[in-house]
């Protein structure tokens, strides 16, 4: 992680773009920890928040589009044969296929918050020949939500981002599931609220 931070401090936005693109595509890069660290650096005045959000969004989308294109062109055999080289074990691939089969395009949106799943969901979207514009719609919504969430966490904790980043390395899966739960609960609450307003009027 120290070397990664050194690259970010030296090469700035360009390093962040490249690291996130590779991380989301499946390379062994701690994406969430990286985002929190970047958010912390933003809070210290090293970078601009809007620029950081744009760079991380396009970096993550580049990784997602790369995975989608490979899945569309090469299919599942490549995933099962070489997945182990990018942290994709057979059990992780199987659980991701189950998730994608159950939730489909929603799995792309919320899959960002589950390490391993976001690395596979785009590839599976490609293998199932999901329409490219439909895929981009869900993937971009997920990317914006994911980048904004973890950049925001880093920015909010400010000078304490290093401690939070270390904690995140241990509880990433739990935090991702909590965020998904909050999003779902927020959506249900908004739906009931709108329905109640319509009934009143």
Q: What does this entry look like structurally?
A:
The model has no long low-confidence stretch (mean pLDDT 76). The N and C termini lie far apart (56 Å). The chain has two domains: 1-159, no CATH class; 164-200. The longest helix is centred in the last third of the chain and has 40 residues, at 161-200. The protein has helices spanning 2-11, 13-25, 31-43, 49-74, 76-82, 90-103, 105-111, 117-127, 132-157, 161-200. It is built from ten helices and no strands. The protein is mostly helical. It comes from Paenibacillus polymyxa. Belongs to the DedA family. InterPro entries: DedA_domain, VTT_dom.
Question: Separation of termini?
Answer: 56 Å
Order of helices and strands: HHHHHHHHHH
**Main structural class:** mainly alpha
Provide mean pLDDT, rounded. 76
- What's the structural domain tally? 2
Model regions low in confidence, pLDDT < 50 over at least 5 residues: none
List strands and helices in order, with pairings.
Elements: H1 2-11, H2 13-25, H3 31-43, H4 49-74, H5 76-82, H6 90-103, H7 105-111, H8 117-127, H9 132-157, H10 161-200
Quick gist of this model?
With about 200 residues, this protein is mostly helical. It has helices at about 1-10, 15-25, 30-45, 50-75, 75-80, 90-105, 105-110, 115-125, 130-155, 160-200.
